[in-house]
Amino acid sequence: MNLRQLRYVVATADHGTMTSAAQALYVAQPALSRAVRELERELGVELFARSGRGVVLTPVGERVVRQARIALDAVEAIEGLSVARANGRGAELRIATTPSLEPELTGRLIPRFARDQSAVRVRVVRCEGRDDVAVKLRTGAADLALTDLPVPGDLAAHPFEQREVVLISPPGLKVREPVPLTALDGMRLVLPARGSDRRVEIDTMLKRIGATPVVAVESDERGSWIGWVRAGMGSLLWYRNQLDDTEGVAVRSFMPPITRLIGLVHAHRQLPPVARDFLAFAKETAKTPRSRDPH
């Protein structure tokens, strides 16, 4: 038995379905279901019974959840004792992230956090991808990570930002609005250079949609992308909240929307005080409208 299993059982009891519980915790639903089943096997009891499309607690499940809440509250209270600290003096915070999200971390979050926590040394742990991020957290090589959600069930997730991918195109492009995903098949696109992290991200997105565009321009000169679109060379896929100068181009949403949810993630263990501080800071930052970054 472990705290992760108890958290999953309590969340399932609160939300009525394992799917809703997994969504609330930002973990994969199969991982949550597997953890609950493992706990049932370990205890030798059935915690949930099916009811319509959801689940309800069995009598023994109600008793387990009641005790689980007490245990989780006790753990939270114990972790709260770490608030008594010397203002993080001399502390180090290690944050893992993927190449495509590193600019978000080093350009936005860390500088703002450092203004109020100047004594804290923040070290960025660079990872090759989401799988590598999970390894760094599990092995203790990083305290926190900024990555895409959802994450495996043995990690705790805190959503930070939902990003909408939009189509930036010459105004004269004739396309239905909102743009159907099928319209991307055969469309001329301005794309990041082949092999770059941003290109891998977009190629993965297009593969998931099942679209094969025509490559109009390939370049990592991000400052030139909008100019090429204005010149009518092709359209661009990018995040709405990272757009600055949209004069002379049309910004169109997709239907269904294309979104990317990113969040702060950590292992299910007691966090160092400075990591708790960073989490609180990031959650507050997520509530504040961001300034647009043209670079």
SSE diagram, text form:
Blueprint: H1 3-15, H2 18-25, H3 29-43, E1 48-51, E2 54-57, H4 59-80, E3 92-97, H5 102-116, E4 121-126, H6 130-138, E5 144-148, E6 155-169, E7 179-180, E8 188-191, H7 197-209, E9 214-218, H8 222-230, E10 235-239, E11 250-252, E12 254-255, E13 258-267, H9 273-286
Parallel strand pairs: 3-4, 3-5, 7-12, 8-9, 8-10
Antiparallel strand pairs: 1-2, 5-13, 6-10, 6-11, 6-13
Helix pairs in contact: 1-2, 1-3, 1-4, 2-3
Describe this structure in words.
Keywords: DNA-binding, Transcription, Transcription regulation. This is LysR family transcriptional regulator. It holds the Pfam family HTH_1. Belongs to the LysR transcriptional regulatory family. InterPro entries: LysR_HTH_N, LysR_subst-bd, WH-like_DNA-bd_sf, WH_DNA-bd_sf. With 295 residues, this protein is α/β, with parallel strands linked by helices. It folds into three domains: 81 residues, Arc Repressor Mutant, subunit A (Orthogonal Bundle); 94 residues, D-Maltodextrin-Binding Protein, domain 2, CATH 3.40.190; 98 residues, D-Maltodextrin-Binding Protein, domain 2, CATH 3.40.190. The chain contains nine helices and 13 strands. The strands form three sheets. Strands 3, 4, 5, 6, 8, 9, 10, 11 and 13 form a nine-stranded mixed beta sheet that branches. Strand 1 and strand 2 form a beta hairpin. Helix 1 crosses helix 2. The relative contact order is 0.15. The C terminus is likely disordered.
Largest sheet: 9 strands, mixed
The figure for the number of domains is: 3
- Rounded average pLDDT: 86
Number of helices: 9
| Shape, per Cα inertia axes | globular
Tell me the radius of gyration.
22 Å
Helix content: 40-55%
- Which blocks of ≥5 consecutive residues have pLDDT under 50? 83-89, 291-295
